[in-house]
Amino acid sequence: MIEETDERQNISACVQILAGLRFEKSLITQLFREEIMQESVIYQDILQKGEERGKKQEALQLILRQLTRRFDAIEPEMQQQIRTLSITQLEELAEALLDFSSQNDLLNYLTNISLTQSNQED
Which of 11, 60, 62, 91 lies in the 20 to 30 Å Cα band around 54? Predict the structure, then answer.
């Protein structure tokens, strides 16, 4: 019996995650209480990462729709570059695109982001 509550919750969450690779969800939920899983730092980390992915996907879809509406079509290379942006960069692009009058403005914006990233890595 593991006495420390935090350690017990984390071990339980890890067991549940691993059990999910082999057993049906219904069996796992019968054997483990949901509260234990939700309090686990492992569960919370997985949940946070999923929320971040969802937020990025929503921002990406909105920006691509806005750009397509403004410029009819966006070149695949530009779309790919936009897909690599962080959530913060996508949010900044969402504001900046209100001032774009052509795809050249978008290209210049993406080029500046690339140059900034390259300089930060050096």
Answer: 11
